[in-house]
Amino acid sequence: MNLILLSKDDFIDSKKCVCLTGRRHKHIREILKVSVGDQLCVGLLNGKIGKGRVFTINDKTVEMEVSLKSNPPEPVPITLILALPRPIVLNRILAHVTALGIKKIFLIQSNRVEKSYWKSPVLGKESIKDQFILGLEQAKDTILPQVSYRLKFKSFVEDELPQLIKGTRAFLADPQAKESAPSSNATPATLVIGPEGGFIPFEIELLKKSGCKSVHFGKRILRVETAVIAVIARLIP
Amino acid sequence: MNLILLSKDDFIDSKKCVCLTGRRHKHIREILKVSVGDQLCVGLLNGKIGKGRVFTINDKTVEMEVSLKSNPPEPVPITLILALPRPIVLNRILAHVTALGIKKIFLIQSNRVEKSYWKSPVLGKESIKDQFILGLEQAKDTILPQVSYRLKFKSFVEDELPQLIKGTRAFLADPQAKESAPSSNATPATLVIGPEGGFIPFEIELLKKSGCKSVHFGKRILRVETAVIAVIARLIP
C-alpha cells in the first residue's frame, strides 16, 4: 500500500478530515507504524493525490487532515481484451494490470474459456473492485479501471471490436505469429489475449479480419499471467 | 504442461522408451486424455525436444516411445539479479522467468529483505527445481535455469558484479530513474530488481557505481512480481 486510497465516505468534515477503520487503519498502524504528526501519501478514489497528516490514532481508528493537490499518473492508453482466465489467476491479473496503468478492460468468452468461470464470485462487483484497489494502492494511482463483460465472442469481435480499436494499433498475442510484439509505442493500442490453450483458429481468423494484427512474444508459450504483463510491458510507451 | 519433461531416470530401455508415473502420468491421463497411439510433445531435461508416442497407458503408468531431435528454444541472454522476494512470490516469479527464457538468476540479500526469507523451504533445491520445471513445461523448453545465492550484498556488488555484467548492458529497475527501461534490445543484459520497498539509497548508489544504469518503468511502482515480468519483457529482443 504505497498510497492510502480514500473514498468520499471517509470524510468527516467537509473536505479536510478523514477517519479510517478496518484494513487501512490496520495497515497504517501495524505496517507503517505511524505516530501523530506523521504524513502519508493519500489519494481520493477517482480523484487527486496528496498528503494526509495523522492527528489521532488509536486501536480502532486513524484520523488525518488531508490535502489533495496532484493529479494521479496519466492512464496507459492500452485497452486490454482478455479471455476470462481462471478465477484465481484473474484476481492476480486485475491487480497486475491496474498497477501497470491500464484503465479499460474487456473480459470475454471464447471457445476454451470454461463457462463455469463466469459464475465465480471473483467476478462480483466488489471482488473486482478489491483487486483494482490493490493495484491502485500499489501504483500510487486513484483512477479505477473500467471492466466490461462480453459473453458472445463473435458478435463482440465482429460488431463492436472494429469501432473499439479505431485510432489504436490493435494486436493479438499469438505464439504462432510471424512478427514479435512491438517493443515500444506511444500510440494508443488494443491488446487481445486468449485463454489458457489459446484461441481456436476460427477465433484467430475472426480477430484478424476485425483488424487485429497477430504478434508473438518469442517462441515460448507464456502463462496468461505472464503474457499479459509481458506484452503490456512491450506496448507501454 | 505444453511439453512433458523427461529425465534420464524415466528411460526403461536405453534411449527410446520411457515409463512415467505420478504427476506427469496424471496430467497425461486426466488432462490430456490421451489414448494408445497418440503423440505428445516431450523433451529431455537439459536436452533435446521431440515427440513421444504412447504405447501403454493404465491407471498407474504411461509408456511412450520417444524421438528427440530438435533443440530447445534459444536461451534469453538476460541475467536476473533479484533481491530475495517473499517465499510465495518467489515461487511464482521463478516459474514466470523460467517461462520467459531466463537461464541465469541471482537471489541476493539487501537491506529490506527479511532475513527469515532465507530459511524458507521454498529455497530448497527440490522446491526451486519444481518451479523451474513448471516454467519449462509451460514454455516448451528443457534447459534448467541456474540460480545462485548471495547473502552479502556489498561484496557481491563490489567484487562480483562488475565481472558479471561485462559484455552486457546492465540496468537497475528504479522508479526514481530518469530514463525508462529500453524497449527492445538484442544484446545480452543484466537486470537488478530490488525487494518490496525498494533498495535503500546506499544500495542504489553502490549498484550504480558498479556499472548498473538505473532505469524506470513509468511512474508507477510495480509489485516485484509485475516488475520482473514487465522489465524483462522490455529487454527481450
Topology:
2 copies of one chain form a homodimer.
Chain A: E1 4-6, E2 11-13, E3 17-20, H1 22-31, E4 39-44, E5 49-57, E6 62-70, E7 76-83, H2 87-100, E8 102-108, H3 125-139, E9 146-150, H4 153-164, E10 169-173, E11 179-180, E12 189-193, H5 201-209, E13 213-216, H6 224-235
What descriptive keywords fit this protein?
homodimer, 237 residues, alpha/beta, 7-stranded parallel sheet, 6-stranded mixed sheet, elongated
Describe this structure in words.
The structure is a homodimer of 237-residue chains. Chain A is α/β, with parallel strands linked by helices and 237 residues long. The first copy, chain A, has 6 helices and 13 strands. The first copy, chain A, is elongated, with a radius of gyration of 20 Å. The model of chain A has no long low-confidence stretch (mean pLDDT 84). Chain A binds chain B through residues 2, 73, 76, 92, 95-96, 99-101, 138-141, 183-184, 217-223, 225-226, 229-234, 236, and chain B through 2, 73, 76, 92, 95-96, 99-101, 138-141, 183-184, 217-223, 225-226, 229-234, 236.
Task: State the gist of this model.
The first copy, chain A, is an alpha/beta fold. Chain A has 6 helices and 13 strands. Chain A has helices at residues 22-31, 87-100, 125-139, 153-164, 201-209, 224-235, and strands at 4-6, 11-13, 17-20, 39-44, 49-57, 62-70, 76-83, 102-108, 146-150, 169-173, 179-180, 189-193, 213-216.
